[in-house]
Amino acid sequence: MSTPSSYRAAYAGKRVLITGGLGFIGSNLARALVALGAKVTIVDSLIPEYGGNRRNLAGIAGRVRVHIADVRDWPRLPRLVRGQDFLFNLAGQTSHMDSMTDPQTDLDINGRAQLAILEACRLHNPGIRIVFASTRQIYGRPDYLPVDEKHPLRPVDVNGINKIAGESYHLLYSRVYGLRATALRLTNTLGPGMRVKDARQTFVGVWIRRLIEGEPFEVWGGEQLRDFTYVGDAVEAFLLAASRPEAVGEVFNLGGPPPVTLQRLAEMLIELNRGGCFVVRAFPADRKKIDIGDFYADDRRIARKLGWRPRTDLRRTLAQTLAYYRKELKHYV
Predict the structure, then answer these.
(1) Does residue 146 have a cis peptide bond before it, meaning omega lies within 30 degrees of 0?
(2) First CA to last CA across the chain, in angstroms?
(3) Strand 180-186 with 225-226, pairing
(4) Of 3, 180, 203, 301, which sits with the fewest C-beta atoms within 10 Å of its C-beta?
């Protein structure tokens, strides 16, 4: 099992750029890097639909630099990447439904902007170390479970197609141009700082918000199996991947504790909240078309190569997330 001390020396005093750094995972990564002694710069568009929230930096805001900038603003990218030792590239459009109703914007952010970021690195900072936030969504409906990295890529929505493009650009630039890039395929990530205003990032955020507000929430289907990763465990995977030379040019799945059905997940939230209720409903027609059914990841490859394993069980993940939003909900709605 890896420990923070195994990668502490990699970041102390180093310059680190996080795109999407006011968002859920990016801000948690920023906290960890500040604690490790890194000089952190954040880029975020703060466009309301995309999850950035200044509250996510509470307590460390004075220890990081923040640039409010959109990665689609290509002329600004060279100045942002120049001089950085590490780039954690988490800028993205995450909503599956938005990608279907506005596919051009999804392409601009998850495809064209990713290529522009890599070009800026190639031309202005070819020695930078990059980790890209990819997604399990690129697999689509699984042929087998758990899903390993050899599974066919067959996404069910525009977002998945564009995320394949973004990931592929990173791997191509690593292979052809020597940019040292790694892609992590994230599963459902939960924890403090996640979007709860709507389901653009995760449906669980909506469940938690409604639960705290004393309102029933809806579970669509309910029998689908899913795995969930605590954000602190995901952050450790990013830090490990960027610090280990054997991760260059590689793709790794992240996973979580044993999968549960969505109905069981809802029941666990009710138990931990000591109250609340939910209603099981059929999928809305537009959502059913892009639902992937059961999904959980095989994360043995990253365990074998980098020593990463999720350390936080699902009950603890949900309990910590609920506790955070009981105090902080007003800043996220």
Answers:
(1) yes
(2) 37
(3) unpaired
(4) 3
Q: Which pLDDT band, with edges at 50, 70 and 90, does 184 fall under?
A: very high
Question: Residue 62 and residue 60: Cα distance in Å, rounded?
Answer: 5
Token pair for 146: 């758990």
168 alpha-carbon distance from chain centroid: 17
And the tokens for 218? 């809806």
Residue in the structure block whose two tokens are 């609340």: 276
Locate the DSSP E strands across 206-275. 217-220, 225-226, 228-230, 251-253, 260-261
pLDDT in tens, 117-154: 999 999 999 999 999 999 999 999 999 999 999 999 99
Q: Quick check: 211 and 279 in contact, CB under 8 A?
A: no
Number of H helices, E strands in the chain: 13, 13
CATH of domain 5-191+229-256+296-311: 3.40.50.720
CB 322 within 8 A of CB 273: yes
Three-state secondary structure readout of 260-322: EEHHHHHHHHHHHHCCCCEEEECCCHHHHCCCCCCCCECCHHHHHHHCCCCCCCHHHHHHHHH
Mean pLDDT of 189-198: 95
- What residues contact 9, with CB distance under 8 A and at least 6 apart? none
- The total number of residues written for the chain in this structure: 333
Retrieve residue 125's tokens: 């900072």
Residue 304 has pLDDT above 70, yes or no: yes
Q: Which two tokens stand for residue 34?
A: 């500040």
Helix then strand then coil, % of the chain, to nearest 5: 45, 20, 35
At residue 97, the 3 state secondary structure works out as helix
Sorted by where each begins, the domain ranges of the chain are: 5-191+229-256+296-311
What is the rounded CA–CA span in Å between residue 325 and residue 322? Answer: 5
Helix (H, G, I), strand (E, B) or coil at 281: strand
